[in-house]
Amino acid sequence: MTQRITYSGPDIGEVFLAWKAIDLHADSMLRAHPGTKEVGSLLGTPMIPSDSGFTAKLNVPAGEDIYYCFWVTRAVDGQFRDYWDTASGATITVGETDHIYVAATPEAANGTDLAEESAWGAWVLVGLLIAYALARILLPRYSEDRAGRSIDLVFGTALGAVAIHLLARAAIFEMPVANLFRRGAGKLLAAGLEDICLIAGIVAAAYLLLWVTPRRAASRVVAITIGVLTLISAIALVNVDAVEYLGSPFTYQWLYYSDFLLSSDAWSALGEQASTESLVNIVSLTLCVPLLGYLFTIFAGWLPLPGARWLLPAICSVVILAALVSATIVDWSILPGERRNAIIAFLQSAVSADATPTLGGLAVPAGQLPFREGAAARPEKFVSLDSTPIRNVVLIVLESAGAVYLDGPEAFPTLRQRLQKYHPNGLYFENIYAHAPSTNATMVSLMTGMYPKLSYESVTREFTDYPFASLPGELSRLGYRTSFFTSGDLSWQRGMEFLQHRQFDVVEDYRLIACDQTYTLQSEDYRENAAIDDLCLADRFAEWTGTSEEPFASVIWTVQSHYPYYFSGPETEYATQDLYQSRYLNALEHGVEMVDQVIAGLKATGRDSNTLVVIAGDHGEAFGQHGHHGHGNTLYEEDIRVPLYLINPVLFSGGRNAGLGGVKDIPATILGLLGVETDISGQSRNLLADHGEEAFFFSPWTQLYFGYRRGPMKFIFNESKQSVEVYNLADDPQEKHDIVHTVPASVIAEARTRVAAWVQHQSNYYDSLE
Question: I need a labelling partner for 450 at 20 to 30 A (CA). Which of 405, 469, 516, 760 fits?
C-alpha cells in the first residue's frame, strides 16, 4: 500500500526522506521507488514540494515496520545544508495511518547538525543509572573481603566493556537490534575476538596486580583498570566511523597523512562525520562501562549461591571461549577491517611504520638495478612538432577525478560528454596512473617528474626545501611566467612551502584568491575543507595572464570534488544509488565547468592555438566498489587510474593513447611538446615518444600495498598480509575476479621482482637525500 509522509519547516529548500523497511531487503525497495538512492544504511527518497511542505510516497506492504527520519540538503536560497532531523523521525507500522504529517524540529529549521541516529545512548545511560540506584537501595550490599570486591569489580567492568565493544561491532555491520540475539550473536563474537582478547589481557594484568600489591593499593589498581577499560571502549565507539569510511581502523600512517590532525582537511572530515548526537552516544555509552561494572558486581554479590564470587570470572571465561569457537569454527565472511581492534591495529601500524618491506630485501636479478621502466617504440604518430610551436601551458588538475567515472564501463555518460567535446582538438590517454592515491604524492610527481617516496612519509613535508629539479623551475629558466592556483588549502603537509621552493612566480591558495562564492553549513559561512568555489580559479587565472605577451605556464588545481563534495548550481541526475557519489559527480562536473571557462578565455584572447591545455586527475575516489570509500586505502582502478587529456587545436585532431604511464610522465611530455629535451628527474618519460608497457603504484596508509601493471595484467601485493591479487583488466576491467590461483607462479614471481627492483631503487634514492 502507499504510505504518505509530509514534512514541513522554515528555510527548507530540499529534503530527503531517509528510511528503511525493517524486514525487507533494500534492493527490492530501491526497485519499487524510482529516484531513491542509498544513504549509508538507509534509503533516501526525494520529497516533493507541496502546499503543506514536502511529501514522499512509499510503496510498502501493509503491516511492515519502517523507520524514517529526514535529511535536509538545501536551504530555501539554494545553499547547501547537511542536517539530519532524527528527532522528527519514528518507527511506524505501514497501514495504521495513511498520511503522516511531521513538523521539523527547531534544530533542523535553524541548522543544528544532526546525525543519522538519535541520542539513544543517553537513554541507555539514564536507564542504567536508575537501575544502579535501585540496586543500591533494594539489594543487600555485597560484603566480602576487600580484595574479593576489587576482583569482582574488575571482572564486572570487563563484561561492560565487552558489551560496548560488541555494540560497536554491531554498528559496523549495521546490524538491526532484532538480530543481535538471533542470527547476529555468533558473528559479533567472531568479529569481536581481538576486542575480547585485549580486554582479557587487561583483566589478567589487573588480577595479578591485585594479588601482589598491598591491599591499601587495591583501590588504585581497580580505578586504573576501570579507566583503561572505559577508554578502550570509547575508542571502539569512535572506530565505527573510521571503519565505515576507511574500511579499516585508523592507523599511524593515517595520523601522519592527516598532519597529525592539525590540517583543515582533517578537521573538516572529522566535522563531517561528527554530530551532536554521535558525540552524546559515544560519551553516554562510554560511561555505561563502569556503571555496568558496578551493576554486575552488586548482582553477583547479591545472588545467594555457593561460590558466587566466581560467577563473573566464569562468565568472562565463557565469553572468551564462545568468541574463540565462533571465530574458528564458523565462516562469517567478515572483512579484515571489520574485525580489527582499533588499538591493536594502531599500535601494530606504529611499530611497523618504518620497517623495511619484504620487497626491499628481495634478491633482484642482475640487470634489474638501476631500475628502468619497460617501453617499446611507438608505431603511432599522435602529433607533429613541425606545426606552430606551443608558447603557453595550462595544467589543470581535477581533484579526486577517477578515470573510471569518465571513461570505460563505469563511466557516466553526462560527465564523459562534458570532456569529450574537446576530443576533436585533443588526445586522451586511457591508462595513466597516480603512483599513490594521495594529493601530495601526485603534486610531487607533477612538479618534479619523479615517483614519490614509497612510504607513508610525504616528500612535501620531509623534503620541503630540497632543491629538486622541477617543471616550473625549467620553464622559469626558459623565460616563462609561472603560477600555481588552487581553491584548496596548501598548508596540508607543507604544500605551500614545497611549491614556493619549486620556483613558481606566484603560488596562491584559497586564502589569497578573491572569491565571493562560499557554502553554508550550520547557518554559517563554510569554506569546504578551507576552500573557495572552483570557478573562481578561472577568474584568477584570467586576471593573472592579462594581456602580457610573455609565455606563461600555470597550474590550476580544484578542490570541490574532494570529500565531502560540495558544489554550486543545479544538480545533474546521475545513475547512481549512492547520494554521496551523486554529489561527487556533480562536484566533478563543476570542476569541468571551470575547465570550460579557462578554455573559453584562451579562445577569447586568441591564445587557444598556441596554448597546451593538460587536464589530469591527482587520484581517484572509491564508493564501495571494493568495500571502502574515499581514497588512500587500496590500489583498485577507482583509486588510482586518472584521466589525462592533451588539448590544442593545432597539434591534435582526436585520438586515444593506450600506452601505460603515470602522472610523473606528464612533465616530460609537456617539455617534449615545447621542444625541450631536458630530463629533469631521470624518471619522467615522454608519453608521446614511446609506448609504455609498465606502471607502478603503492598505498601505505591502511595496509602496505604495492601495485604493478604490465599490459592487461595487474598485480596488487599486500605486504602487510603477504598476499597477492591478480586481475586481467582486458577481461575484467572492474576487478571483480581475482585470478591469482590460475596465474602461473613464475608470472607472479616475475611481477614481484619488477616491483622489488622499483622499491629498492626508490628507497636507495631517497635514502641518499637524507
Answer: 405
